[in-house]
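ugh ok fine here u go
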Amino acid sequence: MRPTSTALHTDFYQITMAASYYDNGYNGQATFSLFSHDVPSCRGYLVNAGLEYCLDYLRDFHFTAEEIDYLRSLNRFQPEFLDYLAKIRFTGDVWAAPEGSVFFAGEPVLEVTAPLIEAQLVETYLINTINLHSTLASKAARCYQAAQGRTCVDFSLRRTMGLDAGFAAARSSAITGFTGTSNVAAAMALDMTPVGTMAHAFVEAIGDEEESFRCFAKTFPDHTVLLVDTYDSEEGIHRAVHVAKELAKQGHTMIGVRLDSGDLVKMSRRARAILDDAGLPEAKVVVSGSLDEMRIAELAEAKADIDMLGIGTKMGSSADQPYIDLAYKLVLYDGRPTLKLSTGKVTWASAKQLWRSYGPNGVISGDELCLREEQRNGKAILGQVMKDGKDYGPRETWREARDRFMSELATLPRQCLDLRNPQPIQLSVSPALQQVQARARAAALGNGHN
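structure:
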């Protein structure tokens, strides 16, 4: 399963602007910058994800004959413009931060340079895709961080906002350290192992709890995780032990038991004690049910005896912060730096690069926004990923993105990692970019000329 799109998956004003650009002869080279206006107060950092799907979209960008016919039926567009759209393809360049990298307010994660109409038409899809994947990756990252080394798996599919969001949750959480997903289509597409065993309905349908465990173990003797809280959790654990001992006599090992409700601290400890007393120290205690990073942190602080966390609704919907305030703004047109001066939404002019510096301990000491051509100390974050509408260099896999995230997580300052009162890094701006900004501002206000 892969998210798909066509050129008509856009806001209508993208097409009306394109029509007016075409009618008035404005189609010079334009650079747009995609960035977040801020970092939400409940986040200390954001995680970039979704780039792969943006590149797929740009590579395959076109209007179908059916879409052109639909636009014609609106009686809003000149035939010459529709003929132009029928042939349009994305021919531009893209610079981007790699997936799995962390970013902060004002930092471009993607910059597009292309003829103005092409660059304008792709805005909606790029924002939509980066917003979804990065929002979910940023939430999943906090869950992984709170788990303190315990295994995390994605249980969110039934509560995500549609199938594309379910796929994004599986992929984004895998990038940020989750080891499995209940989403079978995503597991197939991502070459992951699907996870999950039974629901309460299985126990209810058979009626006898221990017999239901026995039936499941008979079918999956080497993949048995038993859901023990349908009726009484402690009794359910004892019944799971009976079945585990039967499996052992047959040469098989029960993987573990799952708790989905109740006092997870108390019952996880009780489950561990019962399993250990029964000679099953290898059996795992799995918990699920309304988990997010704050609840996971509470369980960890209370020393709950948990091996694995099934994390669903609140991660897959990023319940506390379901969006990132992303913007895609024109910063350069036909060689002229451009900017927006709206109160609270001022943008930085021109094509840019982000340089990240590190202290002697390897922790990020600062991010500096610069002109694209500037050379500064540290590491340049944006790299070219598309040239003339084609991939520029090999694509990275989600596993490479995961490795990058793990490396980047280790570089974040302590204040970024605080779950309850996170403080993101504040961006600095190079003197050269500030000079370009001042000239662009003066020109925009009519006080000078570029």
